[in-house]
Design brief:
alpha/beta, 314 residues, three-stranded antiparallel sheet
């Protein structure tokens, strides 16, 4: 069996915080790392200077390992890669593009690489290219999603690779983490669960929207144009889907309509006209709590579930 992500990254618990654009900053990353997980600063949409500043700020807030997520579609990705190699956080996660050309550069800088992959074929390719671990994310996740569920991906990807596989998508408590570990995962990544953390800078309107949401409240936009994004139902999302399936808008018109809506909700707090990106597991988001409380509860639940599982006979 592959090593746990705790061994790979030098962390206490097998929990990585998801990289949420416009949300995951130094404060949230440091809080997760201080709680025993691995925090991540999200570089998507940000300037090179901001990324450098946040890495340095996180280093002041924690002496524990943390990482940076690189969105490989970003126009300034090369400059961000240079900053990361210079500042040397413990690891990087890489998505929305081909990570292979960057792996050797990070390795030479002493930065561990954990690309995000959506299927078996790419998982094998990334392993062959020398990645330290991978994140495999199911369609239950918030934000940009693939087409396979977390369970289907665990069933098919984990047996096919020898490097640690971190599972993501709809995992928000200790039961979900225990299930992934029992399936052979090396750890889990959670994004939505930390949106209601005290240390998360997402706008209070979005936190309130998430806390009042029910289990059936997510919606997927952009399915017909090859850019599926999951979020919470609101006027923007429902109007977008209606227009998308009406056939009355071009792909470019739909893309233009969606541009900037993540920031509109997360930063500006417009949860009517912005895209409230979040995963399917919503009913666990019932109050605003410190990151440490959230992480400790997840770990406690997971230990209880794993202990019970050891007594089950089949």
């Amino acid at each position: 069996m592959a090593k746990s992500i705790t061994e790979v990254l030098g962390i206490k618990f097998p929990i990585i915080q998801g990289a949420m654009a416009w949300i995951a900053d130094a404060e949230l990353a440091a809080a997760v790392s201080n709680a025993g997980g691995a925090g991540i600063i999200a570089a998507g949409g940000r300037s090179t200077e901001w990324v450098e500043q946040e890495i340095r700020k996180a280093r002041e807030l924690t002496d524990q390992p943390f990482g940076v997520n690189v969105m490989l579609m970003a126009p300034n990705k090369d400059e961000i890669v240079e900053v990361i190699c210079r500042e040397k956080p413990a690891f990087v996660t890489l998505g929305a593009g081909n990570p292979v050309p960057f792996l050797e550069k990070f390795k030479s800088a002493g930065v561990k690489t954990v690309p995000v992959v959506p299927n078996v074929k790419l998982a094998k390719r990334i392993e062959a290219a020398g990645a330290d671990a991978i994140v495999v994310e199911g369609m239950e996740a918030g934000g940009h999603i693939g087409v396979l569920t977390t369970m289907a991906l665990m069933t098919q990807v984990i047996p096919e690779v020898g490097i640690p596989v971190v599972m993501a998508g709809g995992i928000a408590d200790g039961r979900g983490m225990a299930a992934a570990l029992l399936m052979g995962a090396a750890g889990v990544q959670m994004g939505t669960r930390f949106l209601v953390a005290e240390e998360c800078v997402v706008h209070e309107n979005m936190k309130a929207k998430l806390i009042e949401a029910v289990d059936t409240d997510t919606i997927v936009t952009g399915f017909t144009i090859g850019g599926s994004v999951r979020g919470v139902k609101n006027k923007f999302a429902e109007d977008f889907v209606a227009l998308e399936f009406s056939g009355k808008a071009t792909k470019q018109e739909l893309l233009d309509r969606a541009t900037g809506t993540n920031k509109l909700a997360a930063v500006d707090g417009d949860v009517v006209n912005g895209m409230v990106q979040a995963g399917e597991t919503l009913t666990l988001l019932r109050e605003i709590e410190p990151v440490k409380v959230i992480v400790d509860r997840i770990v406690h639940e997971a230990r209880e579930v794993l202990a019970r599982a050891a007594t089950i006979e089949v």
